[in-house]
Amino acid sequence: MTKHDDRELVELIADRLQARGFSLAAAESLTCGWLVSSLGRGPDAKTWLRGGIVAYQSEVKQQVLGVTPGPVITARCAEELAVGAARVFAADLAITTTGAGGPGPEEGEPAGTVYLGWSVEGAVGSERFEFDGDPDDILSQTVYAALQQLEVLLRTE
User: Fold this and answer.
1) What is the pTM of this model?
2) 2 inside domain
3) pLDDT band for position 3 (50/70/90)?
4) Is 67 exposed, middle or buried (0-12, 13-18, 19+ CB in 10 A)?
5) Nearest to 129 by CA among 86, 121, 139
6) Residue numbers of the domain that contains 75
């Protein structure tokens, strides 16, 4: 299993969130709470982490977070999850995960197909990844990629 030591990265994210006065939320499908668990170990998380939601079933994604019905292993879904999480938690920044964790394909996408989505003060984006390994490897890589994406989004100009 691929393990990443994310402590330093989470500390950097926490510092940058606090320096910018930003709050953070997450909506997780694929990672089922692993991302918020990592973030919650960050320094002073109670001051910047607004919360997270595990929206594993499509109906939850649609009813709670406003995701359009249809395939959920898409950039569109990742971005809509981010908009929904930012709205539900009144957060400046939201990060999301969705994808095919394996061991087999889902929605015609091979195992390891992952989308990260984000919303930063209303501006949305997403990125597609293709990870290898068993389901635990894929989840670990996804959480680490999401943390890396947060670090990038929080860099000051």
Assistant:
1) 0.95
2) no
3) low
4) buried
5) 139
6) 7-153
